[in-house]
Write a sequence for this structure.
């Protein structure tokens, strides 16, 4: 643990300093171009999944809101970006903003409901809203393409120059840049007084209002931000694959992202990213196996993580580190 | 005019009664220990496969399969409760959700491995297959049978909870766990028994469901959502609430499929969100 800082400001600044491991990690993501040129489209899938997991981490890991329907916002962003490119224009970055804004709007609307409840009621509401939106996407067949998927997206080359290619070179770079930019923002956010207030809500629901912090407005804010980030992740998926399927908004995606985050370690900035890397690489390796058997291993993994390693891989590592230092 | 509406109401009510049998056990265990058990429908699926095995492979009558489905699901649930669930009684919602979703994933894979991914049929007696006409409306016999079974279970549960010593212990533990323990009630034992009964009822529900909705390895997921909706709309730990919610959801679902098929499952999700916003603790719930 870092020694207690003199002032709150100094404490926050000490917390938010970039460590060499972090810098090395982000540089290492670039080496995929050298070492895994054949796996770049998998790399872009991982970056998208990591971004989505990061968005869930903001509400689950920091504010303590368990969501079983986070794919609602991912899917909203994907459909918004897809429709935008189909009917308005195909410039990627503006499509990204539209996707994020649409998801944030839906997120804000649902946060008005979510912020009022706790425990099972809240879990059920996240599930219910997710299922509702998935059902809307399914039945609005004329707009979304329903189970056939959204067809006819046209994405212009990135910055008018880099065309999205079959091997995913541009897609990987694009997804990585978006992930890094959002990550920096999220990192800034959670090391701010607002981020501390969120952790306060997670740790002690009753005491926060007693010290003058408003639970509901904090939860509405972070839920909206998280939904917007999930929407951006969805938009990147839509733009790099040039299609949107119902699977983007389905319950399966909500469950997958929860697994990734918990595997990596919720409440840690890198938890979602590590979890996404392990989950996606493992799924790629097991892709020949029938899906129900893949879920057997995921199920065992979940049971194992919960009973043996309650804070995920990163939590386990930092516990080991603490024990090592304690000697 | 009267005929079709009555038919839809009857089908919806019968479907609701099936949901009641599937969900009442979860309602009681959730209300009792605040344990978010998403694997409840995996026990229902187990009951369904027990019934399929017993009737198709061993050739036993359907009515012998029902108690076996109950016992099988109850036995496996006790095993899991002793080994996994009890570690997490005081853990967060998230850990409970993750553990039990993990169990559902494993159950899907095990069922697919043992039985394949196809729908399984079950042999019900011939006299349950037909239908009875009354006042110009046809009532399917099996659905009548479902309603009778569900009403019997509801009456037995209410009587058991209101008039037996064990029921009094359960109610005491629901109201105030610490106080109940302080009065010398073995809360852990009460919970284990209630959990086994609840899972057994889920198994019975699963066996009853095969004839109506079919059985495949994804049963534990598909019906989990319905069961959770019924439980949260009805209110945790309330048998009357679960009954009312099951009837409501069943009728809304069937009526929606009949009159507005393009809306799909949209209606019941809407009903759930609306009810929870109106009454966060459910229709007849005491606490959130």
């Amino acid at each position: 643990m870092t020694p207690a800082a003199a002032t709150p400001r100094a404490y926050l600044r000490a917390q938010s300093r970039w460590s060499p491991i972090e810098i090395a990690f982000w540089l290492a993501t670039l080496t995929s171009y050298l070492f895994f040129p054949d796996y770049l489209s998998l790399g872009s899938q991982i970056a998208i999944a990591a971004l989505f997991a990061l968005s869930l981490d903001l509400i689950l890991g920091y504010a303590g809101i368990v969501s079983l329907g986070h794919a609602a916002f991912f899917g909203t962003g994907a459909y918004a970006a897809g429709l935008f490119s189909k009917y308005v224009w195909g410039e990627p970055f503006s499509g990204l903003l539209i996707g994020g804004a649409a998801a944030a709007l839906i997120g804000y609307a649902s946060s008005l409901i979510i912020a009022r409840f706790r425990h099972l009621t809240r879990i059920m509401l996240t599930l219910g809203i997710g299922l509702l939106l998935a059902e809307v996407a399914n039945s609005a067949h004329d707009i979304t393409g329903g189970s056939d998927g959204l067809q006819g997206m046209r994405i212009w080359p990135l910055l008018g120059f880099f065309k999205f290619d079959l091997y995913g070179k541009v897609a990987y770079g694009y997804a990585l840049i978006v992930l890094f930019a959002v990550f920096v923002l999220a990192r800034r956010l959670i090391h701010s007084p607002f981020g501390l207030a969120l952790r306060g809500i997670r740790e002690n629901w009753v005491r926060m209002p007693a010290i003058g912090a408003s639970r509901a407005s904090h939860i509405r804010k972070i839920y909206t931000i998280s939904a917007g980030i999930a929407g951006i992740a969805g938009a990147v998926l839509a733009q790099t694959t040039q299609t949107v399927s119902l699977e983007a908004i389905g319950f399966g995606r909500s469950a997958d992202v929860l697994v990734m985050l918990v595997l990596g370690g919720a409440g840690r900035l890198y938890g979602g990213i590590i979890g996404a890397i392990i989950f996606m690489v493992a799924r790629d390796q097991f892709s020949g196996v029938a899906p129900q058997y893949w879920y057997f291993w995921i199920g065992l993994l979940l049971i194992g993580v919960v009973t043996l390693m309650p804070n995920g891989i990163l939590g386990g590592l930092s516990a080991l580190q603490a024990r090592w230092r304690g000697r | 005019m009267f005929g079709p509406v009555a038919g839809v109401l009857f089908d919806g009510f019968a479907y609701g009664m099936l949901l009641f049998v599937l969900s009442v056990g979860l309602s009681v265990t959730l209300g009792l220990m605040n344990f978010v058990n998403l694997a409840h429908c995996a026990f229902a699926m187990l009951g369904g496969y027990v019934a399929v095995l017993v009737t198709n492979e061993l050739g036993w009558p359907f009515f012998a399969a029902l108690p076996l489905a109950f016992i099988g699901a109850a036995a496996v649930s006790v095993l899991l409760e002793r080994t996994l669930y009890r570690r997490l009684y005081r853990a967060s919602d998230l850990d409970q959700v993750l553990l039990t979703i993990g169990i559902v994933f494993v159950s899907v894979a095990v069922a697919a491995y043992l039985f394949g991914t196809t729908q399984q049929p079950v042999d019900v007696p011939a006299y349950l297959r037909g239908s009875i006409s009354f006042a110009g409306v046809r009532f399917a016999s099996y659905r009548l049978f479902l309603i009778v079974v569900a009403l019997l279970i509801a009456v037995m549960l209410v009587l058991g909870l209101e008039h037996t010593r064990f029921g009094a212990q359960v109610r005491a533990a629901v109201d105030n766990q610490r106080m109940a323990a302080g009065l010398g009630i073995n809360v852990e034992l009460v919970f284990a028994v209630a959990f086994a009964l609840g899972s057994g009822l889920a198994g019975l529900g699963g066996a009853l469901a095969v004839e109506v909705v079919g059985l495949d390895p994804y049963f534990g997921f598909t019906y989990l959502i319905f069961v959770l909706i019924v439980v949260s709309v009805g209110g945790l730990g309330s048998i009357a609430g679960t009954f009312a919610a099951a009837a409501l959801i069943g009728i809304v679902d069937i009526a929606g499929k009949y009159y507005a098929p393009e809306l799909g499952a949209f209606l019941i999700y809407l009903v759930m969100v609306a009810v929870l916003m109106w009454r966060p603790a459910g229709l007849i719930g005491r606490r959130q």
Remarks:
- Residues 215-241 of chain A form the longest helix (27 residues).
- The CA atoms of residues 87 and 136 of chain A lie 20 Å apart.
- The radius of gyration of chain A is 20 Å.
